[in-house]
Amino acid sequence: MVEISGVERDRDIKQLFAQLYHEIHKVVIGNEKVIEEILIALFCGGHVLLESVPGTGKTLLSQTISDTLACEFKRIQGTPDLASNDITGGTFFDGKTGQQSIKKGPVFTNILLMDEINRAPPKTQAALLEAMSEKAISLGGVTYPLPKPFIVLATQNPIDQEGTFPLPEAQMDRFLFKSVVAYPTPEEEVLIARSKLSTETPEVIFNPAEILIIQQEIKETVELSDSLLTYSVNIVQATRNRREIQTGAGPRASIGFMNATKTLAFLDGRDYVTATDIRRIAYPILRHRLILYPEYASMRVTTDDIIKKMIDGINAPME
């Protein structure tokens, strides 16, 4: 087990996270950006919406990250008949004691994979709102804190929309990132097929207690200059003044920029944020927060296209 106390800030932290990526890639092939985005979200207390077609290894990815961090992992399958208490738990009458008892649901974990979240009905989707925002669940009139760290990884299929319930804007905004899990390249797919014969297992690099220490260190030691904070806010503000965008990003996106870029810098072994960090983070932070007018969507214009135009049109501070 790696001890965080006493590590040298720049060199050793970068080395530890390089080792973490190496352990994850013992099992998971490709998707470096998605892995990075999940780790950034985990280490700054955010949540990730994973978009991909079925069969691209989202469950394996989530489970492997949990294994390398000694975190408890649970998975919920979204279905039309999924009820709120299937996620949060609830109260039940205990015949042996004659009293009401609390049964905690699968949300009481470190890493929760909500598979095909848009197949669950709106009331059930809303059950995650308190958990994602407050990191707590109310059961029987009592509020119970969730384990720390806590992250929701929710998946949705971008193609098959029949029988789904689109996530409302308030729910989408709870996710720090929307990450796109791509099909593997031919070379990666060969490696994936071969990996099924491997018995190699990833080693634990951090544990939950160490993750909390790192989260606090990121808050206290990584610097985000006023000019770069203004730069990220200008990008968010620009989403509200584009002719292609019906609804732009809210203030939660600006907060997300601050937390995520500081974490990205830390994972890279730096104690300062750069404009490059902000440009890198802009896509996963904004792509699910922008609603395009239908005429632009019908022309196959994507939110990533608009984000690129905005970044290209806004002057960045000198690095």
Task: Give short descriptive properties of this protein.
single chain, 319 residues, alpha/beta, Helicase, Ruva Protein, domain 3, 2 domains, five-stranded parallel β-sheet, two-stranded antiparallel sheet, 13 helices, 11 strands
Structure description:
By secondary structure, this protein is an alpha/beta fold. It is 45% helix and 15% strand. The chain has 13 helices and eleven strands. The strands form four sheets. Strands 2-5-8-1-9 form a five-stranded parallel β-sheet. Strands 3-4 form a two-stranded antiparallel ribbon. Strands 6-7 form a two-stranded antiparallel ribbon. A hairpin with a 2-residue loop joins β6 (136-139) and β7.
Short account of what is shown:
With 319 residues, this protein is α/β, with parallel strands linked by helices. The chain contains 13 helices and eleven strands.
Question: How many DSSP helices?
Answer: 13
Can you tell me the CATH topology of the largest domain? Answer: Rossmann fold
Catalogue the unreliable spans.
1-7
Q: What is the typical, i.e. mean, pLDDT?
A: 88
- The whole-angstrom Rg is 20 Å
Number of discrete domains: 2
The top-level CATH class of the largest domain is Alpha Beta
Distance between the termini: 37 Å
**CATH architecture assignment name of the largest domain:** 3-Layer(aba) Sandwich
- Write the element-wise H/E pattern from the N-terminal end onward: HHEHEHEEEHEEEHEHHHEHHEHH
